[in-house]
Amino acid sequence: MIKEEYEEIKRDSIIYLKKDNNLSKHKPWLGDLLSAFYDPIMEKSIFPKKFDASITGHKQFLKDCYSNIHNLNVLELAAGSGDIAQLLPDDNDYTGIDISRGLLKIAERKFRSCGFKNIKLYICSADELPFIDNYFNFCICNLSLNFFIDTEKVIKEIYRVLRINGVFICSVPVPERNIRKNTIRGRLYSEEKMKNLFVKYGFNFEPFNFKNGSLLYFRTIKIE
Q: Which of 93, 106, 163, 184 lies at a C-alpha separation of 20 to 30 Å from 49?
């Protein structure tokens, strides 16, 4: 599943990548020392104060979205602390990427405790995925698309690694739903702009009819 130019280096269940004899390095936005506080920050600050949204509603909606996903190769971008382990059926082969080793260590424990047998966790960036073309059936990105520096490059990478008819499900804040004008980090695209970007690179675009504060939930399918 890894492109030929990469070498995998596994350390404590986390996979690092080596290319041209150089080990990939990334700087986490929170810092690995703060990884233990990630979940409380999301629950007590980000969701109620920034997104004006319900984290309980968010998780339940996504659990419903993933309920029929079984025995597939699933990729998650910006896996974070692994909350998806409690939402995704455990018979899937799961691959998660993030730039934070600390968060992936927490994620690894969650996946094991939820009964997943086949998981791989990589330190890497979403705009340069190390995986071969047309490998994954399903890709997920929750609450992180706005943080990627080059959104179009990420979309092209998602397209590359998904199979034809592969599905991408995403949740992301959008400015038109930020009614209270809260400060939300990252680059926010409108729903219309988001749709245009995905259609431009060979996807359809289907917004879900679920309202939760400033968050947009949508699904795309690789159609070309």
A: 106
